[in-house]
Structure formats: structure tokens, C-alpha cells
Amino acid sequence: MEPVDLFVIGGGSGGVRAARMAAQHGARVALAESGALGGTCVNLGCIPKKLYSYAAHYGEAFEESHGFGWSGPAPAFDWARLKRNRAIEIMRLNGVYEKLLVGAGVQLMRGSATLRDPHTIEVGGERVRAAHILVATGGAPHRPEFPGQELALTSNEMFDLEPFPRRLLVIGGGYIACEFATIFAGLGSRVTQLYRGAQVLRGFDDDVRAFVAAEMVKKGVDLRLNANLASLRRELGSLKATREDGGTLEVDAVLVATGRWPNATGLGLEAVGVQLNEHGAIVVDEEFRTTVPHILAVGDVIDRVQLTPVALAEAMVVVDRLFGEGRRRIDYDNIPTAVFTHPNIGTVGLTEAQARERHGRLRIYRSEFRPLKHTLSGSTERSLMKLVVDDATDRVLGVHMVGAEAGEIVQGFAVALKAGATKAVFDATIGIHPTAAEEFVTMREPVA
After folding, report:
1. What DSSP string runs through 177-229?
2. Which of 311, 332, 335 is nearest to 39 (CA)?
3. Residue 448 binned pLDDT confidence (cut-offs 50, 70, 90)
4. Does residue 182 have a pLDDT over 90?
5. Any domain includes 447
6. Are 281 and 260 within 8 A, CB to CB?
7. CA distances from residue 269 to 172, 189, 274, 317 in whole angstroms, order as listed
């Protein structure tokens, strides 16, 4: 194969974006991918997870419809049909990614890539010389070690699990653990969740954490804090899980969701001088150059912010530096994110604790309420909205929400935070009535 200007290792969000945009700049580009195109997000993450979240919402939606005058026999859930329809949609997206690459002129190579020297990559016995190399190999679920660990599942296996687990044990307290716990509870599983910490969702605002935990319990998740799994064994057709305190649980499946690790091993990186940190992530500078300057890395493999849109933005910085004007930068402040628990979380900016450390005196605005929909639905679900404001400048530092469509609502407020909006600007904005979102522009009195 002829030499290329850019060789991309990994066909996920960051890799595909970089390859496609570099090719559109006129560069000769090749990309290697050993699995399905689209990476974690398309195949085993964001997309299938949200599709399953939609599926789980229907169970309670049918129940809630009775309060609005609807009646009839309860529908039955078909796990096999959901899996089949999800697989068809993911295959369609895989094809879209391939068309984008081929249409842009990218040479697509199927197989695992290994660096043979600083400028040579080998894929399936074929070697390619490259002026620049971009590593965008993402991450993978962390598998903790304990007796019987081989009987546990990671998030990768949950989408095609067979049979449907009537009793599911979830280990972990991060967003992936909480999402799967509420999704499978909504689909009909009896879910127990163990987390070794004092509260789930470490790193999120403390009010959000406590509120979501209470809502998860209301949705049917048996959440047990300060608890962890010690061992697992198969017993009479089911799994017997033993906790660290000696208690036992009998379940049908166990999901271990205790974090993700970068996919940086087995690529030959260290042999050519690329440095990894103590967590196995690739060390890069502000322009995503590794310790070997013509080798770059973006996305989950550098373990900065593990979000698809961040990987896309990082890829655009790389392409601009290599083949454009070199002016593009990425700002990691005020990155909005959503967690698809039931109910959802949407957040942007600083938590209250972070803001107190950095800004000192704050004003906190918080509202908890029963959404209009649930005045008739019979559901006890409540929503939480919170603003963190710098008292000295009146600037809004954080926007946090727990409730239906929280991600959709907070996305717009993320623009306001990027623009430096003050609480006075929020107050001067007319709300849309009746919506939940209007609560963000009608909170007038700070909490004590």
C-alpha cells in the first residue's frame, strides 16, 4: 500500500471524524478497525443504551396512561424483538459510517493495527508507512478480580443477554451502573445494586446524587450503599452472590460496572516511545501529540473526558493542526452531559462543591416539584432543578437537573453558560409555560 499522510487506528467516533475530515482536506488517509465501525458509542454504548432506555419508559408509560383516560389489557414485553430491532438499527449505522469513510476517500483496512516502527503500521500482514498516526482506540469495561469473576457480565454483554434476567445484580455506582439498573428495572427485572461508596454518581452535584438515588429506589431498584460483591458461584441454575459482609443473593445475572480502562495495550506504542500514564492512558499535550510528536491520540484512550462529542471535538483539533490553519482549540469547561437513568440527569458547569472551592461565596437556587404530567399519571416521580451562582459576579456557574428529558433541556442552557450568562439574564428570560424547563428562569429566592 502507498504511504499515507495520516493513519488512524480505531474506527470509533474520534477516529472516523478525524479520518473523514482529513481526507476532505486533501490528505491521503487510511483507517484500521478490527470490529464494527462506530466504536463503543454506536455499538455498545450511547445509542443502544438510549434505545433500551426508551423501551424501559414504555412500561411505566402504559401504566400512567390510565390517569389520562386510556384503558385496555396490559401489553407484554418482547425482549427478543427489542434486541432484534436494536441490532438492525446498529447495523444501519455501521453502514453509514463506512459510507462516510469510503465517500471521503479513506482507505479502510479491516483488522488490528500494530506499530512496527514510529512510522510503520501493520494490519493483517500488510504494512503502511504514515507521516502521522492517530490513535483513537477508545476504552473497555474494567473487570475487577474476585472469585467467580468469569460468571459476571460487563456492559458489553448486556444488550444481547439471553435469557432476559428476571433477577439482576448490578455492581458499581457510576453512571453506567445506575443507567443499567434503572433500565432493566423498567423492563421488568428485579434489580439489586451494590455500591461500595456512601452515595452513587461520585463527581456529580451532591443534591443530584441524593435525589437520583431516592428516585431509583422508587423505580424499584434495591440500592444498597457501602456494600460490595466478594464472590460469585453458579448454584442450581442460578448465581449465588456473596457480599463482603457475608450476606448472599440469588440472581440470574450479574453486571459489573466499575469503570472503563483505555485500550492502549497491544498496539506497540511503548516500543516506539509513546508514554502511558499510571492508568494506562496515552499521555498527550494540548495539541494531542504524544511523546512521539507525529503520533497523536484522542478520545477515551487519553482518558480526559469520556464523552463522544468530546472525542469528535478533539479529532477536529488534530485535523486542523495537521492539515488546516491550526487555530482550533477545545475548551473542557462547561461540557454538558446527560445520564439516562430513570429519571434522567442533565448537568453543565460546576457542582456546588467545586464552585465553593473555586469561587467562595455562592448563591444556590433549588427547586423540587411534581411535574404537571404526574398530577394525573399517578406516578410519584419528582424533578429537581438547581442553579449554582457566583455571588460576586452573578455569573451562573452550574445548571443541574433531574427529570424527564433533562439532557434535552440542559443542552440549551449549556449555550448560556458558554456565553457567560448571569442570573440576571436568566431572570430576564421569559419562560415557556407550562414546561419543566421554565423553572430555570423563574427561581428567584436562593436557598439558605
Report:
1. HHHHHHHHHHHT-EEEEEESSSSSSTTS-HHHHHHHHHHHHHTT-EEEES--E
2. 311
3. confident
4. yes
5. no
6. no
7. 31, 43, 5, 22
CATH value at residue 225 = 3.50.50.60
**443: part of which helix (H) or strand (E)?**
none
- Do residues 81 and 153 share a domain? no
Cβ neighbour number for residue 186 with a 10 Å cutoff: 24
Using CA atoms, how far residue 284 sits from 291, 299, 304, in Å, is 7, 11, 10
CA gap 242, 246 in Å, rounded: 6
Strands 4-9 and 229-235 come out as unpaired
The answer to whether position 67 is within a domain reads: yes
Per-residue DSSP letters for 116-145?
A: EETTEEEETTEEEEEEEEEE---EEE----
Dist. CA 421–CA 429, nearest whole Å: 11
Q: What number is the average pLDDT over the span 92-99?
A: 98
Rounded distance, CA 368 to CA 439, Å? Answer: 10
Average per-residue pLDDT for the chain: 97
pLDDT digits 0-9 by tens, 296-312: 999 999 999 999 999 99
Number of other CB atoms surrounding residue 416 within 10 Å: 20
Domain assignment of residue 16, given as a range:
4-141+261-323
Q: State percent of the chain over pLDDT 70.
A: 100
Q: Residue 365 and residue 383: Cα distance in Å, rounded? A: 14
397 touches 355 (CB < 8 A) = yes
Q: What is the mean pLDDT of residues 188-199?
A: 98
Render pLDDT for 64-88 as a digit per residue (tens, 0 to 9).
Answer: 999 999 999 989 999 999 999 999 9
Which of the residues 25, 142, 342, 433 is marked catalytic? Answer: 433
Q: What is the mean pLDDT of residues 214-228?
A: 98
**Residues 438, 422: Cα–Cα separation, whole Å:** 16
Res 1 pLDDT > 90: no
Q: Note the pLDDT tens digit of each residue in 137-163.
A: 999 999 999 999 999 999 999 999 999
Residue 125 and residue 165 in one domain: no
3-state secondary structure 1-26: CCCEEEEEECCCHHHHHHHHHHHHCC
Buried b (16+ CB within 10 A) or exposed e, 87-98: eeebeebbeebb
Does 119 participate in catalysis according to the annotation? no
Angstrom distance (rounded) from CA 39 to CA 344: 24
Is residue 10 domain-shared with residue 136, that is, in the same domain? Answer: yes
pLDDT at 118 over 90: yes
Query: pLDDT category, 45, cuts 50, 70, 90?
Result: very high
The reported pLDDT for the residue numbered 219 is: 97
The 3-state DSSP class for residue 95 equals: helix
